[in-house]
Batch of 3 targets.
Target 1
Amino acid sequence: MLFKSKKTKRVDEDQYELLKNAEARIRQKKRLYYHFVIFLVGSVFLIVINKVLKYGEEYDWFVWAITFWGFLFAIHFFNVFVNHRFMGKEWERTQREKLVRRQRESIAQLEKDVQKEFLNSDLDKTE
């Protein structure tokens, strides 16, 4: 009883890869949400600095700063939600499988051609 071996759950490679992809995706979304919260707080902070503390009040510079930051946030959003769908892990996997399949087909075709040439050369030698 003291020396019983513990049974461990084994996760197959596909499930492990799916789990890793899900964890990476969660981290991406979490960073995006943090970026959004910091963007909101930072925008309010920039407005307060410009309007309430009257730093550079002759010009509304906070508008340009918030616009630039919003553009960076839009790029981040695009990379997480739009670009990931088109060129994410699933896309990489299908592309890899497609290339491997093409290579196998070309190797099989080459093997056929070599066997055909070998048979033809054997037939020529026997004649």
Note: The first helix runs from residue 13 to 52.
Target 2
Amino acid sequence: MPHKLLYTVIIGLFWNLHPFHVSVCDMEYNKEAKALQISQRIFMDDLATGLQGFHKMDYIDTYKPKDPKKLDSLINEYIQAKLFITIDGKKAKLDYIGSELEGDARWCYIEVKNISSISELDISNVVLFESFPEQENIIHLKVNEQLKSYKLNKKEISHLFKFAQ
């Protein structure tokens, strides 16, 4: 009987840990607002590991932070150092909007303003690459009703998307 209990506990521990490390970055060009709107979904435990390493801190609560504004400040600094976008040959300025909790992940919201059109977008997204060798960041980009996707990893940290006008 004790073996069944031990087995149940071990399986439960492994079941709760996700065996892969992936984030999803949804980007959409809003023509009316002249803005590229970005939402990046990152598992909370992975985000905590990345933030703790980046900020050299022992513990960061990404689930129920005592100070949500401080958490957003830490996330902003991290994202600014890990996400790079060039639109039509011009480096984009990322404006961090904030984040929110959804299930076991945190959505981080970013915007690039004053974009009149997009024909080429080059993205480098190295979020969590320093923390997890097998990290993958999936990019979904929608521009003028054209949806394109790409998966970035340590071997390929950037991708150039091209769109017909």
Note: The longest helix spans residues 2-16.
Target 3
Amino acid sequence: MNTPDSALAARDGLPPDARRLAMLSVAIGVGMSALDTAIANTALPAIADQLHTTPAASVWIVNVYQLAMVATLLPFAALGEVIGYRRVCLFGIAMFTAASLACALAWSLPSLVIARLFQGIGGAAMMGVNTAMVRAIFPAKLHGHGFGLNSLVVAVGFAVGPTAASLILAVASWPWLFAINVPLGVVAVALGRRVLPHTHRASHKIDAPTAILNVFAFGLLILTFGDAAHQEGWHKLLPEVIATLIFFGLLLRRQAGHAAPMLPVDLFKRPLFTLSALTAVCTFAAQGLAFVSLPFYFETTLGRSPIETGFLMTPWAVLVAVMAPIAGRLSDRYPAGVLGGIGTALLSSGLVAMLMLPSNPSVLDIGWRMAWCGIGFGFFQAPNLKAIMGSAPPARAGGASGIVATARLIGQASGAALVAYCFTLSATRGTSYALILGAVFAGVACVASFSRLVVSNEL
């Protein structure tokens, strides 16, 4: 059913003024989530020191957030189809804001970890319906533009995160890293309540046992990736792998025959959707391989300081932010298969160029290669988002939106785990192995993207 409030009902997007305010509300929520991920990673040593805990224990500040997000993304996406994306989005922003306040007031590692758990749940609610919400805000002819703006916000959040963390820690203690979210979140909720559109609601209900199985399946999957990244032995990894497979098997069995399964296997029957999701996973895995391994190369091999390493990584993020809205506008006129194929080809060639750095590279040698990779990654993102959302029927926009965020997180997590494996093969050549794998993943993404030009989206 549709809401009777026609002023807020999005039939083909919102009027321009309401559209801008609605996008601002969504952008603040998504930006906070992206910024917080980068801030927490950068500030982890400072937080561990001030809480008087070990580096190994402090990793849970990051891990529990990722676990909560991935485990609950698809249930929130499915819930959005039933009760409306607007409600789930507003709940997510409010939960994230309240949890940010709890993080700022945390007095110990356990209290901070618990607050980060709820922050991850709030982030999952926002990200799970994020692209479905953007699809409802913008008219069909401007979907590419909307997804481009969305990609821009995420890229800027990740790009300014390390710098923001450094600036805040230079003048204040770590709780302020989280406290800055509170006023932003209040503004986002106030705007969202006023202008976010109501959307069509599905007639089916949420199956609680399916949601629980989904939480365990994806939670165990990310836990396994994390333990692999920290080089745990097979005595621990093997039981986790087996348990993950069991829960995924139970999940698929439980949702079999459902009209709108929580893990949207029905959408994967559409070739365009499957190829777009594969493109996303492989491209984010390539990004994860590069982003996790290159700091080791810059600091260990080249002897650069952490601050210098941050600046060397910056061209990638900046060019992603520059290219995202451009690629979004182009995707309204040109096929996503072509744009994504060009972008992933540029990314793959950029990673190969990083492998060919001279033994004592200058800042320019590194900078143009990182910028090249950023151009490729930025060129892929918005068109691929539009392809995933466009290949799903409107009634299944929630499931498609959940897959967008899930593909990103799984790609990044698998990339990080593979970096750990590369360094177990060779401490000195680990970065080179990771970049080779990254180039291969980007190459697979390129093939998958161009393959979309010759397939039909029909079931």
Note: The chain has three domains: 10-201, 208-257, 263-459.
